[in-house]
TrEMBL record:
Record's protein name: GNAT family N-acetyltransferase
InterPro entries reported for this sequence: Acyl_CoA_acyltransferase, GNAT_dom, N-acetyltransferase
Domain N-acetyltransferase: 11-194
Transmembrane segments: none
Residues forming coiled coils: none
PANTHER family: GNAT FAMILY, PUTATIVE (AFU_ORTHOLOGUE AFUA_3G00765)-RELATED-RELATED, N-ACETYLTRANSFERASE DOMAIN-CONTAINING PROTEIN
Pfam families from the UniProt entry: Acetyltransf_3
Length: 195
């Protein structure tokens, strides 16, 4: 299950390589995901360790015939500029708290396949997040034969919710206050796209 390179009209979605370090580091700084308690160099080192793990993770998952979980680089086809990241990630959350899963307060955590994206501010509001995520959704449902994909965000992240809606996701809010990071979930069923 090697991680393929996917292409859209404007984008190439490819496995990350060690040479992506500076672009990934810059992305995390630019979108305020870097650890503000750490120096620039300490943040870069943290990103380097993550990138090395990501590259090795691709190789090891393929050897184990496991799904190609993880982040991928998103770049422009014309010129190859680094746009951001998109990926499929294991997601463990109290999904039973959502109305469509039973609305049980304090529900136990269960696994789902999560869709992730992060786009450099310079490239935001140009449809790249939706385009890259849609390519990954088609790959996940068409090639990997997944039944469902979820994505999560905070209540105030209207841009992320807009991407979810453009993908055809149904948005559900956690009606309970805990955990605080589990606020809005987008759900997309393969049966809704391929019926």
């Amino acid at each position: 299950m090697q991680r393929p390179t996917l292409e859209t009209k404007r984008l190439r979605i490819r496995p990350l390589v060690l040479e992506d370090l500076e672009a990934c580091h810059r992305l995390y700084v630019d979108i305020d995901w870097a650890d503000t308690r750490l120096s620039e160099e300490a943040n870069r080192e943290q990103r380097r360790r993550w990138l090395e793990w990501t590259v090795r993770n691709d190789e090891q998952l393929a050897l184990l015939y496991q799904p190609p979980y993880g982040d991928r680089a998103v770049e422009l086809k014309d010129g190859g500029g680094f746009v951001g990241l998109v990926g499929l990630v294991p997601l463990l959350a109290p999904f039973g708290q959502l109305p469509c899963f039973g609305r049980v307060e304090g529900a136990r955590f269960s696994p789902e396949v999560g869709l992730f994206w992060a786009i450099s501010p310079h490239f935001q509001r140009k449809g790249y997040a939706t385009e890259a995520a849609r390519a990954l959704v088609q790959y996940a449902f068409g090639t990997l034969k997944l039944g469902r994909i979820v994505a999560g965000t905070e209540r105030g992240n209207s841009a992320s919710m807009a991407v979810m809606r453009h993908l055809g996701m149904r948005l559900e809010e956690n009606p309970f206050p805990e955990p605080p990071w589990f606020q809005v979930t987008g759900l997309l069923e393969a049966s809704e796209l391929f019926s």
